[in-house]
Each structure stands twice: as structure tokens, then as C-alpha cells.
Amino acid sequence: MVRKLHGDSVKAQIVEEVVQESSQAVFAETQLRPAMQPQIVVREYDAGGDLEFTMEFEVLPEIAVGEIEGIVLEKLMVAQDEGAVEETLRRIADQQKRFEAAEGRVAEAGDAVLIDFVGKIDGDAFEGGTGKDVQLVLGSGQFIPGFEDQLIGVKAGDERAVGVNFPDDYQVAYLKGRPAVFDVTVKEVRTAAAVELDDALAKNLGLESLEQLKEFISTDLGRQHEALTRTYMKRKLLDHLHATHDFPVPDAMVEAEFAQIWQQLERETVDNPEERATMENERDEYRAIAVRRVRLGLLLSQIGQANGVDVTPQEMAQLIWQEAQRYPAKQRQQVVEFFQQNAAASAQLRAPLYEEKVVDFILGKANISERAVSLEALQAAIDSEDAAPPPVEDAKPAQGPQEEGRGCSRCGGGHGR
């Protein structure tokens, strides 16, 4: 009875376990490293007899790592600018502005209006085009281009028909490029009360003093500048590694990587035929990006393994804890247990940190010179690397069986272009 009820499922489980164990034994014995999960076909199996199966897979290439000592790189440094701190402080103050109703005032740029509106196309109201008691700051760019300009000069009690054209790249497909008329009723015109740059502003933000707020802003700007500096230097390092290492990469890994990139591009251009056509014309260039990603991923993994770079259990526990914080409190323990019990998910979480540690290892051996530049110059230097077609930084390329990861299939990184 047991055999009748459960025999097939038990047989499948046993076959899977035997195939897994024996295939791993083959890899260990032959020192072959599969690039992707092997394709396995069971050819013969009889109860009480032998199990025979075939495996088909591409192997990872032998990688000769070039010299990584003394790679010449330039670190572009942004000097701290007191003017940037003051500008950020004033922007924060503007965000804290409170608007108060002003009797009899004619609305000017910078004022706010409290409005009701109904949007119509061809005389019919359309879904999502109605609002009540909406506060709109004139000149903020919050609404469709041209909408706010037509409310300059209104006063409380006015009614106005505002004609606009939805942009061609508007996020709602059926509204793209279409003309519309909004029937607007102005309920109040409001002016902004001045916000003083003082301790009271800081306390409203949970800090003790204006000086502490300035220190916080300065520190935050410094972190932003350092992140941009690292982005530029890391990209230059990856460019150097790619230019000095040329080895064949497994076709299956490239195809899987390219498929991930292409799927993301298709999602991003689903409502834009012109961008889709451009994308199709640049297919070969995106495939070249996939080749670069795979090659750099394999190379970084090889460098890291050869030099003992690893993610410690403490670092892994910290990553899992940080990931768990993204979920409601009652789910966090389940998230922790999920990563502790799921090796593939854990490796995916580990991969970005592993790449950063390998990059840090190489940078620690590099010959780095420093040059002070403006923030604009640093940003321009980064942007200049993004010639069309741009890298697909948010793609999650395919994952091989050895180092599953977010990003490149070998170490999880995007590796620039």
C-alpha cells in the first residue's frame, strides 16, 4: 500500500538525490567547473539496478589573472563647499514652508492655491483627472506643463478652464499626447510664511541646534561626494581590468545575461515605440555589455578566490538583518529564517558585498593619485562614461550554480558598461 501510494514520489526524490550527489562527485574528481546548471537526462533506471544519466554543460574558462599591483588610477575629489551647505539648508527651509490663506490676494509665482478640478477629454471626464482641496504651489512643476502658468493671476472664488496637452512620455498610456481641459475652481490663494534659518528649524527636524543641522548636512554631502568619487574610480578600474583581460566566456552565461538585460529594456520601453526601435538597432551593443559583465564577473570572482576575499558570517548576519528591516516587524523573523535556510537567496544577498570587497582589495594595491575637481566636473566625468546605449544598472543578470548573485552571474555586480 505504501509503495502504491508513495512509490513514484519517493522514486523521483531518490533519483534526484543520487543524480545530485554523483554529479557533484564527477565535478570534484575531474576538477571541471560548470558555467551553468548542467542539463541532465536520466537514460536508464530500474528498481534494484543501476542509474545511468548524461550531463551536458559548458565549463568555466581557465583565467590567467594579469598584474593587479600598481594599477594607475585617478581619484577625483570634491572639496567641501560652505556654499553647498547653505544652499542645502535653504532648500530644507523651503520644504518646511507653511502656506496661509491671504484674503483678496492675486496669485503669483511661488504662492499656493487650494483648488478643485475636473479634467475632461472631448468633453468627458476621464479617470484620475479629478481632485478636491488640492494645494498646488505655482511654479513647482507639480502638474502638467502649462497648467500652473494659467493660474497666475487668479483669486479666491475664480473659475478657470485650463487647457493643456499631456506630454508624449506621460506615464498613463491612453493620455499620452492628448489635449485636455481642466475646469478649475479656486478656493483659496495662500502665501508662504517665511522660515527662519535658526535653531527652531533644526528642532522641527529632530535636531538640537542650527549648528548641528549644518554639521549633519556637511557630513551627508561628504558621503554623497565620496560615493560619486568611488563610482568613477570603480568604473575606471573595471575598464582597466576589461581592457587587460581577454578570455572566452561561456555562451550560455552570455545568453542568460543578455536575456535579463533585454527583458528589462522591454519593460522600460513598452509604451514608447521610438525607444523600442532604437533599442532594437542597438541589440549588438547590448550583447557586448552582456559579454563584458560576464567576463568581469568571472575575473573578479577569480581574483577574490585567489586572494582569500570572503564575506564573514558576521557580515552575512548583518546583511540578513538589514534585509529583514524592510519588512513589517511581525514578518522579520520569517525573513531571517528564509535566508538562513535558502542558500541561493543567501548567496544573492551576499554577492554585491562580495564584489565591493574584491574591488576594495584591488584598489588597496593600486597606484592612486588625487585631483580636486568641482562637483559638476565629477558628475560630468561619470556621465561621460554613459554613452548610448547606457548600462542597465538595475538588471539582475542570470545566475550560475557556483556563485548565484544579484547582478553578474559570478559575483553579482553590474560592472558598468
Give an overview in words.
The chain has 11 helices and 9 strands. The chain has 417 residues and is of the alpha+beta class. The protein folds into 3 domains: 2-56, no CATH class; 72-81 and 222-383, Orthogonal Bundle (Trigger factor, domain 2), CATH 1.10.3120.10; 97-193, Roll (Chitinase A, domain 3), CATH 3.10.50. Strand 5 and strand 6 form a beta hairpin. It is extended.
Brief sketch in words of this structure:
The protein has 417 residues and is an alpha+beta fold. The chain has 11 helices and 9 strands. The chain has 3 domains: 2-56, no CATH class; 72-81 and 222-383, Trigger factor, domain 2 (Orthogonal Bundle), CATH 1.10.3120; 97-193, Roll (Chitinase A, domain 3), CATH 3.10.50.
What is this structure's SSE topology?
Layout: H1 2-30, E1 39-45, E2 51-56, E3 72-78, H2 82-95, E4 98-101, E5 112-121, E6 124-137, E7 159-165, E8 179-193, H3 199-204, H4 210-244, H5 251-268, H6 273-281, H7 283-306, H8 313-324, H9 332-341, H10 343-363, E9 367-373, H11 375-383
Parallel strand pairs: 3-9
Antiparallel strand pairs: 1-2, 4-8, 5-6, 5-8, 7-8
